[in-house]
Specification:
The chain has 373 residues and is of the alpha/beta class. The protein has 16 helices and 11 strands. It folds into 3 domains: 198 residues, Rossmann fold; 74 residues, Helicase, Ruva Protein, domain 3; 73 residues, Arc Repressor Mutant, subunit A (Orthogonal Bundle), CATH 1.10.10. Strands 2-5-6-1-7 form a 5-stranded parallel β-sheet, sandwiched between helices. A two-stranded antiparallel sheet has the order 3-4. β3 and β4 form a beta hairpin. It is globular. It binds adenosine-5'-triphosphate and magnesium ion. Magnesium ion (MG) binds next to α2.
Amino acid sequence: MNPFHHGVAITGQEFCPRPELLSTLRGHIDSNQNCVIRGVRRIGKTSAVLETLRTHKKAKYIYVNCWGKLDVDSLASAIYEAFLIHQQRKGLSIEKIIRGFAHLRPKVALDPYSGEPTFTVDTRADTAQDPRSIERVLDTLAHEGKKCPLVVVLDEFQALLKLPKAEALMATMRGAIQLQSHVTYFYLGSTRNLMDQIFNSPDRPFYKSAASVNVEPIERSVYVPYIKDKFATGKRGASSAALAAIFNAACDITGDVQQLCSEIWNFTTQGETIEAETVPHGLERIHRAEHESNSRIIDLLTPGQVRVLVGLARVGGASPTSKEFLTAAGVAQPSSVTRAINRLSDRGLIYDSPKGYRFFSPFFRTWLLTQEL
Ligand SMILES: Nc1ncnc2c1ncn2[C@@H]1O[C@H](COP(=O)(O)OP(=O)(O)OP(=O)(O)O)[C@@H](O)[C@H]1O
Ligand SMILES: [Mg+2]
């Protein structure tokens, strides 16, 4: 069986150790310190937080994914649903949950994969889409925090900026959270500029309201042996040059390394040693699998934006308004590049890093280089 997993949070035995990061997160839980956890896509934020909580001796947690929430009501429902799962994990029977929280009109279903119960609640009548109603939801968590050490994980927190009345919602949340001395809030997010808008802008309610933790790539000295061991479970060897080529192609991004390894696993066999020459074949397979969705992304861009994107892929994003870049991209005006870059960032295709603009996915960049655009 393919031992590489990507696109899902990894915990337990599969979790490649990150002792320093976990110890920092544990420290924040123990000192009741709200915390913003940032890092690029697929670097391992959710996995690290869930593994910290799984191995914490005392803390209980509520996990809410803010992604895709359309309004205050769907956010309130998601928090309540996570709260009911926490009640169930604490040992409360389903009957007691249904009776004890009857005002939420909970419905239970079994997750077809895990077999665990999941809950849906109906809060429409309670919230009436009023951002202030979130205060009542958070009060429930505050109350719970007095009974047991509680961590509330708000994953993809930046997605809340897209909600209607986001500013009022954020202000209400901040107001309620700052009074909760017994609950620790972890805000996770990957879109750096949006997370910065929330936590680093003096005119925003969450300004400097939480400690900051950056999730970086796992050190190669730890992650390479982990990957090598996984190949060994299927009696595949991997040369040092091959492993270096994999990590380079994936830009050391934790999940992308596993995606490429998973692809390489699929076309290699027991007894084989994976060499550096094997890696481009794995990349090609990823490009082929992602061709359609990547093409759709390109179709939505203007020709000017495509030129800038291809320029970034070829030249790099360290100085996109330089003469060299303008020539390579075939763009006349630096201001056109700036406008295109803003749009590409808004679409989440690139992000600003201390080393210049980078692609959200290293494989999207290498796919672009194979296209005649
Ligand atoms: N400690 C780890 N050990 C092994 N693999 C890991 C680890 N952390 C992350 N991964 C790999 O990275 C992938 C993405 O992990 P995770 O979902 O935790 O990242 P994320 O930063 O939360 O991503 P996103 O930005 O998409 O929310 C996992 O599916 C797994 O392949
Ligand atoms: Mg995540």
